[in-house]
Amino acid sequence: MKENSKTVAWNFKGEKGEFFLNNPHKTTGLYFPLANEGGMMSSITPLLGGDIKTSQNTFLMTPVSVGDLHNSKSSRNFWLNIDNSIIWSATGNSLNQNILCFEEESEESVKMEAGFLWQKIIRENSKFGIRSEITNFVPVNDDKVELMRVTIKNIKSEEMKITPTAAVPIYGRSADNIRDHRHVTSLLNKISTNKFGVLVKPTFSFDERGHKLNSICYSVQAVEDNGKYPIGFFPIEEDFIGEGGSLDWPEAVVKNTTNYCKENKNIDGYEAIGAIRFEDIVLKPGESKSYIVILGISDNSSSVEEYIHTYGSILKFEEEFEKNKKYWEKKLSSVSFKSSDKNFDLWMKWVEFQPMMRRIYGCSFLPHHDYGRGGRGWRDLWQDCLALLLLNPKKVRELLLNNYGGVRFDGSNATIIGNESGEFIADRNNIPRTWMDHGAWPYFTTKLYLDLSGDLDFLLQEQVYFKDKQCSRSREVDSKWSPDDGSNQKDAGGRIYKGTILEHILLEQVTAFYNVGEHNNMRLEGADWNDGFDMAGEKGESVTFTAFYGSNLMDLSKLLLSIKEKLGIEELEIAKEIMVLIDSISGKIDYDSVKDKNSLLENYFKLCIHDISGKKVKIDIVELSKDLERKAIWITNHIRKNEWIKNSEGFEWFNGYYDNASKALEGDFPSGVRMTLTGQVFPIMGGIADDEEVEKIILATNKYLRDEKVGGVRLNTNFNEVKLNMGRCFGFAFGHKENGAMFSHMTIMYINALYKRGFVKEGYEILDTIFKHCCDFEKSRIFPGIPEYINERGRGMYQYLTGAASWLLITMLNEVYGVKGLLGDLMIQPKLVKDQFDNKSACSAFTIFRDKKLNVEYINEDKLEYGEYKISSATLDGETLELNLVNKSLVIDKKVIDELTINVKHQLVIKLK
Prior knowledge:
Elements: E1 11-12, E2 19-22, E3 32-35, E4 41-44, E5 50-55, E6 58-59, H1 68-71, E7 77-82, E8 86-89, H2 95-100, E9 108-115, E10 118-125, E11 130-137, E12 145-154, E13 160-170, H3 182-186, E14 190-193, E15 197-200, E16 204-207, E17 210-213, E18 217-224, E19 232-236, H4 237-241, H5 251-254, E20 266-268, E21 272-277, E22 281-283, E23 288-298, H6 304-311, H7 314-331, E24 336-338, H8 342-361, E25 376-377, H9 378-391, H10 396-403, E26 416-417, E27 424-425, H11 440-453, E28 462-464, E29 470-471, E30 476-477, E31 498-500, H12 501-514, E32 541-542, H13 543-567, E33 571-575, H14 583-586, H15 594-606, E34 616-620, H16 621-642, E35 644-646, E36 652-654, E37 657-658, E38 667-669, E39 672-674, H17 678-685, H18 691-704, E40 706-707, E41 712-713, E42 742-743, H19 744-756, H20 760-775, H21 777-780, E43 789-790, E44 796-797, H22 803-816, E45 819-822, E46 825-828, E47 842-849, E48 852-859, E49 871-876, E50 879-880, E51 885-886, E52 889-892, H23 894-898, E53 905-912
Parallel strand pairs: 48-53
Antiparallel strand pairs: 1-2, 2-9, 3-4, 4-5, 5-6, 7-8, 7-13, 9-10, 10-11, 11-12, 12-23, 13-21, 13-22, 14-15, 14-20, 15-18, 16-17, 18-23, 19-21, 24-47, 25-26, 26-27, 28-31, 29-30, 32-37, 33-34, 35-36, 38-39, 40-41, 42-43, 43-44, 45-46, 46-52, 47-48, 49-50, 49-53, 51-52
Helix pairs in contact: 8-9, 8-22, 9-10, 9-11, 9-22, 12-13, 13-16, 13-17, 17-19, 19-20, 19-22
């Protein structure tokens, strides 16, 4: 990659995913996550901007959205007054240094180094002869602290006298107060100093929850490398900056004022800042001096000084830093890849890291992700579990079980996940809204769990149902329900009802089958996966998710037969009311009749508006399987017959949607060709489209949606219309977010679908394009990983928190490397192209399967292309395995894997000929 006047590309350093980047401050909008699993969440920029928080209501630094990163002067700063004549910010946040940013040849150089949840910025000014190295990270424990080590070095030939001052503004309240009562809430501040820094403990929390006594203490403390504590503090922001001053040119630093206060000072009712003055130092040429700054959010004031004892020395900082590195290295040790492209393999480590970040940050606590008030959505919950199944499978069973407690008896679900396991909320502000795709994801994720574990008994375990005032998929309100009734579905006797996980899955799929619109596709309701399709709630239909539910129904019908075969179960117990939905047994209806389907569903809804009978009936498992298969076959035939488009240019694909005027969304229009990627993905992935149709879809996609400029495949063509009868996304500028961007999540699912159907070359080409675009820093302007989307200018947007990461991880392991489960057995089905093998004709994937460490290595000595090779032999730890090939895939019985030793890396070598 070529260097330009402002930046160069980031490059990996070593074997652990660490990277470096020169002049990171010359790219707008860059930020990095720093967090732990105890609740501390920071964002940090190359200029040490960003924010620090533990929740929506507890921000230590001022909350920031992405636009604030270049507008706000609030940052973690460390000032040097050198020889009483030079003012220099070790973090680059001074008035003079901001001007230097635009100079092509500057006396100040900046380099960023980073690894998993740590950042180091090295800044050097050749004119002043000064160098700073600042490392930030969050300890991997339950402490809500961010640690910052600042090292200052004299790199000139004469000694220099320095007056150091750390300065971090303390916001200390809810994000709600950024505009709502910003000044009034400062009047609540009780500010104090101790021996090491500044503490802020507001009297009240003053936000949407009401006026409540506050117990949270915010602190900025610091200590010298020799253990000396500071000589004084400027705890009030207006005193620190001075009249007419600013955070990037504060009077206390510029004039080197000494009117600082000492410890045990109390001042109330002002905006606070952790401005900490250290004693003057004289650095001889080549000498260095270090400081530890501790930024904390504590549940009580008494624990604040404990932070100094725990972290307040260079030795303790280094110990915690090493713990941090080892912790995240271990967390990321469950999956890895080795191919001909080392950069791709390391890049995938950052993709593997991203689902962990979404579990920590939700969708609310990074600069681009500034919506909501914390927590994750229903879809996020199940998508993230896909990655968790590969990275930490032991924890997933209980997690999945708890998640099913969010399903309602009408087949819908809670949409916001609380902080505690199994805690669900109807929606933000109790908005009555149902996303029609939500019922499809739990089965998809659960099936992955079953394939990896073989734990079919999980399906027979019982769980509660979620209950609130919303019923009939948010079309009605249960007037009999009150919050005092609790959040679980009850029976007529007032007892909490429980049904098997299989019953929950069945209910989600089958209710959706009958919930159809005018064209006999499933109703779009509030939206589907594309949240931007949110204005077609009356007549909109989602053909694409009709296809997804159809493939689920077919797969579930087969799974039922596996339950019968492997567990010897002839009958299942389900709630009496659900029998209405199993029409093959209770009384067949005409699936071609929208009226009959809707009527049946309405009859079911009437049975469960408030409570249910609590009675269960037995159903023959084979008959139930046949009912689901009948429904799945009908969906396949319906979509292929009624939703296939051939346009005036001769290209063919599936229509994916109907708008609120009940008109097909895709095809030829006066404004141009209209096509969506989403409408193609699930018909391909679920086997709705045959191979010939897949080939035609690829041609149409390449014609209308493929765009190298945005690094892959666009989500849709330009409709050239603000479609108020479809969704808000069409109000977005084309090429941004859900309106025609390269939306990574759906593009990766498209790649996954192509691989599943054997269109490997086509899938690999798109995957390679995305990777190369993301790594081209001049275009993407992002750190390693895959962003939520790439905008019209080719810039990566919304990094770290995207479902695309989970899907890419599972696509690489299960489809590209072909290491997957089959109801507990190990199935090997490689789909590697020739270019992915190294110069030794090998490539490999490491994973945990049935608690055993497996390194699966492929040998392709003849350098054959995919489609040319087949599995010719296999050895496990040097022992030859019997080639049990099923549809050209090697199946290894789970008993063989279970006999392997735990905590030993086992070598499975597959030769391809």
